[in-house]
Every structure is written in structure tokens, then in C-alpha cells.
Specification:
39% helix; alpha+beta; homodimer; Ribosomal Protein S8, Chain: A, domain 1
Chain lengths: 330, 330
């Protein structure tokens, strides 16, 4: 990869670990190295704007790592929103782009609201169905505050994920009954049956409806693959077919940014100072837990598991990264 | 009200009943008549664009019925998106606007995607909290198809609503444990305790996070009231403080509309022809149930309950609507 692209990809992974989102942190390095070394993703792929009209942009990721295309798309949307106030970049020709909050949060320092959504490999069925045709298609929204942390939402429309369920399987523990269905569509607490079956959406038909709609927006506007057109959980994603939708909303186009951000502070403080249920120590607004973890990790370093360190080590050996860096880290 | 405004308000209510969304249909007539006759909403209120820059519009509803302002805002967003491809209208000075799908669906015949969201009276707490400061803040997204019905999502971020829980209370039935918390924040199946307590979000922290974010977008961009600034469920909403966010996305700005809509057909047909769980007769894509009900009601008329008819009768008497219309109807 070009140095800049490699730095961006690394930064996106470390940023996720820094905020405590380890599922999308450097844990992914071995998988990503595999995609770049023979997995079909183009390390030198270059995203470019292929359609450009007023507040609408279409970006072709050029089969680059999803991080490269999604970051590029948000940069383009931000620059465009400086004149149009609202701008959307639909991305195709992309790949898995990691934690979506990374792109939504690019908009914050511009006094903009960032929105990012993506298509994902299908792991859910339509409500009442058995066919795995709907992705958990996550959504991220970042809203700047003044003195408080930004409001950052970043979540998929399932209760859980294959990754989390695998952790329960390894420990031999039962999963909560709201997480998955077995192959026949019945709720199951058996991790193995869950992995053969379906993830459960949040809020029954509502969550899978949101996943379908945000999946359609993420892929059909740019011409990217949708649902099982993208691949499946057994064989993985087909390279270069993923899609995302990235939006930037310039606050000054609507409202005085100082007043807006001060009111966001108010929303956050109202939550933080509210009464908590017995047994709950502290209440957080969306993004509050991650902001607190980011402070802790920035001060004291990021704790990684042995497995993650071993994965990084193997990825470093495979890519012949300078041993000094590896030795320095661990 | 002006004849056009009255016709629009009526049409929005009948459209909801036509699609089987009776909770937002003519059932609301007595409540709306109350708001218009001494409830503080201005029957002659006129929405207007108060800020206009490229893809961003701010609309002041002028304390008109929410339907008048929201419909006006979507018209403005659609006209703007014809040149900017994406446009957003933030609405303030508004009131309860009924079923959001009505506005999202305005965009369909223009080959646009419509998005509508609104602030709502607070009925939820932040995750782990006890204070009723977050509305269920619904979201609607409408996406045009070619031969199939449009994809239409329209739902709030709670499992249920005060209205539904009241129906259970009247019948003396227990509510599902996922619907509400009691005053202490514990799940309850007691409808009375639920009404004193809190609605449960879908997907725990995820659903309430979505409600917070969409509430912020619905109100802070336009300067409308947020959360408990809007009022509460006991005293009702303060007139003229509600906010909505309305967006139109012109498909042709991104992709060939024929190809896009044909792919939406594909998404819908894949769902409809998929395997169903035992006991499920038919699978629907978002908006599919409502489209089927709309066909049935258009052919055979809309069934209304005795309570709804009595409410309409009382509202008609209160507003001295021509008896012939009432007699003709009932």
C-alpha cells in the first residue's frame, strides 16, 4: 500500500481500539493482511469520484480497502458540504471498512454532522423468514458538542454479532435468547446452533426493516452489491463489491453552530446528571463510554489480549514488517 | 383552517387508515380538533422558509398543524433536490405531524427517496436511567420500486407505545415484558405500572441511542424544542415548539433510476419468495403489509371501530360540520 493509505488504515484500527471498540481494532490486522495478500483486495486501489452533481457524489473505491474509500468519500462530502450545506457520497467498488464512527467523526472538526452507513454480509432473515439475505448493515452518526464529548452513535441492527457468539462458543457458555435464531427460526441459547442459524434483529421487524433500508441506501445508490450479492459468511465477501453511503451536514447551513453545540451539551448533561436505575453507577449519552475509554487509553495505553498480540505478530512476520517495531511494541 | 389545509390534514389521516395505521388515522380527529379549538395550535398558521442556502432549508411551521408544516417542508425539499440532488428541510414552530410515512412517500412519484423524522414527547429514559427525557422519535424512509410496492419503513424506537399499553390496560391484560419499565426501571407486565413508568427502547442502548440522535437531528438543526422541552405526556405538548427533519434524495443524481428501482424490486421479491418460519404464511418487505392493506381498503372500504366513529361524530358536532356528511358516512 502507499504509505499514506497504510497510515490511514492503521490509524483507523488504532482509533477503534483507543475508543474500546476492540472488535474493529488491530484484532482485524491478520484478516486484512490476508485480504491484501492474495485475498483479492487491491493494495494500490485508488478511490475516485465517478459522478459529481451538486450535493451528490458517487465514489468508486477501485477495490481499495474499505477504509481508504470511505475516508476519501467523507473528505469529498465535507468539501462539498462547505458550499451545499448537505452532501452525500455513495461508494461502490469497496470492501469492509471497519468501525463506521471513524468516518462519521471526520465531520466533527468541520462543525458538521457526519453520517456513515454500510452494507454487510447477510446474517439475518427478513422478519419471520429463514433465508440469510439481510446484513446487520450498521449506521454511525456523529454530532459535535461544545464542551462535552461529541454525540456518537455507531451500531448494527442486530442484538449481537458472529464474533461475540464465537466467544461464547469457545467458553462453552449459553448465549442470551434474544441474540440468535436456530436454522428453523426459533430463538436459541446454543452458540453452535446460533452460528448455523440467524442473527436476531433488534426490535423484531423494526430492526430488520432498518437493516434492509440502510442496506438499500448503502448499496443501490452507488450500484454496489446488496445482501447476498456481496458474498456470504462462509466464503467471505467478494472483493470490490461493497458499498457505503456517507453524508455530511453543515450545521451553519441551518443554525448558529455555537447555539447548536451548546444545546448538544445540554442533551448530554441532562443524561449524565439524571437518576440511574439501582445498580447503575453512571449514565452515558451515545459516545460517552467511548470518549471516557479514549481518555483512559490515551493516558495509560491500550490493553490488548494475547490473541490479538499474537495475530499482530503473525501479520508482521507475514508482511516482513521491521522487527524493531514489533519488539518495541511488545 | 383554509380549505386546502383542512383537505391535506384529512387526507393524511385517511391515508394512514387506508394503510392500516389506525393509530395515526381519523382516530386522532377529536384530539386534533381539541388542539385547533383552544389547544393553542393556530388553524390559520402558515409555514414558510426562513433560511435557504443550497441543499439546506429551514422551515418555520408558524404553529400550524404538524401535517401542514411537514408536507410543506417535503415539497420544498423535493423542489430543491431537483437541482441539488440531495436536500434537507429542518422544521421548527410545528406540532404533532401524524404518520411520518405520509411525508417520506411524497418523494416517491418524483423518483426520489424520502426521509422524515420527528421529535416526540419524552416517554423513555437514557439506557440505565429513570428520567423520562427521550422521545420515541420515529423515522420514516420511503424508497421507490418499479413493479413492486415502494419500500416504506416507518417506526419509532420503542417496542410499543402508550396508546397500545392503554388498550391492554382497558382489557385487563398483561403486556409483554419487553414493552415497558416500571418507575424503578425494571421490566413490567403490568400496564398501569408501565404507564407510570417508561417505554422500553428496541435493542436496549441501541434503540434509545437512535432515538436520541434522530431527536437531536429533528429539533436542534431548526431550533425546535428537544425532549422534555417539548412538554410531557401528562400536560401534552407545548404548541408550536415541535421539530422535524425532512430529506429528499434524487436517485438520478447517483444512479440510473430505472436500474435502481428494478434492483429495489429484486430486494422485495427476494424477501417475498424466501422460506418462512413454520406458522408464518407470507413474508413481507418493509411497507408490504401496508401496501396490501391499502389495496384491500381501497376495494372494500376502511373498517373503523365504534370508538373511532363516535370520536368523529363528537368532533363533527363540536366543529358543526355539515350533518349530511356525517349521515352519509355513518
Amino acid at each position: 500500500m502507499d504509505t499514506d493509505d497504510a497510515a490511514l488504515l492503521s490509524d483507523s484500527l488504532v482509533a477503534a481500539d483507543l475508543r474500546g471498540i476492540h472488535s474493529h481494532g488491530v484484532l482485524r490486522a491478520p484478516e486484512y493482511v490476508g485480504k491484501l495478500l492474495g485475498g483479492g483486495v487491491d493494495p494500490k486501489g485508488r478511490p475516485r469520484v465517478v459522478r459529481d452533481s451538486a450535493a451528490a457524489l458517487v465514489v468508486d473505491g477501485g477495490n481499495s480497502m474499505g477504509q481508504i474509500g470511505a475516508h476519501f468519500a467523507m473528505r469529498q462530502a465535507i468539501v462539498r458540504a462547505r458550499t451545499t450545506n448537505v452532501a452525500a457520497a455513495a461508494v461502490r467498488g469497496s470492501n469492509h471498512c471497519g468501525a463506521l464512527s471513524y468516518y462519521a467523526m471526520q465531520a466533527l472538526e468541520e462543525n458538521m454532522i457526519g453520517i456513515a452507513m454500510t452494507n454487510a454480509l447477510p446474517t439475518m432473515a427478513p422478519w419471520g423468514g429463514l433465508d440469510k439475505v439481510v446484513g446487520i448493515n450498521p449506521l454511525a452518526i456523529a454530532v459535535p458538542a461544545d464542551e462535552c464529548h461529541p454525540l456518537v452513535f455507531d451500531a448494527a441492527f442486530s442484538y449481537s454479532s458472529h464474533g461475540k457468539i464465537r466467544v461464547y462458543q469457545q467458553k462453552g457458555e449459553a448465549i442470551p435468547s434474544a441474540w440468535a435464531f436456530d436454522k428453523e427460526g426459533h430463538p436459541t441459547t446454543d452458540a453452535a446452533k446460533a452460528l448455523e442459524g440467524l442473527l436476531q434483529p433488534i426490535g423484531e421487524y423494526k430492526g430488520v426493516g432498518l437493516a434492509i433500508l440502510f442496506g438499500v441506501l448503502s448499496s443501490l445508490l452507488s450500484g454496489a452489491a446488496y445482501g447476498d450479492g456481496l458474498g456470504n459468511m462462509v466464503e467471505g465477501a467478494k472483493p470490490g463489491l461493497d458499498g457505503h453511503l456517507i453524508m455530511a451536514i453543515r450545521i451553519a447551513g441551518f443554525e448558529d453552530p455555537a447555539r447548536f453545540k451548546s444545546r448538544v451539551d445540554g442533551v448530554i448533561r441532562q443524561i449524565e446528571t439524571g437518576r440511574a436505575r439501582q445498580g447503575i453507577e453512571k449514565l452515558f449519552a451515545p459516545g460517552g463510554v467511548e470518549a471516557q475509554i479514549e481518555q483512559e487509553h490515551t493516558a495509560r495505553g491500550i490493553p490488548l489480549t494475547e490473541d490479538t498480540l499474537e495475530g499482530l505478530n503473525q501479520a508482521a512476520l507475514r508482511t516482513q514488517v521491521d522487527r524493531r517495531i514489533r519488539d518495541g511494541l511488545w
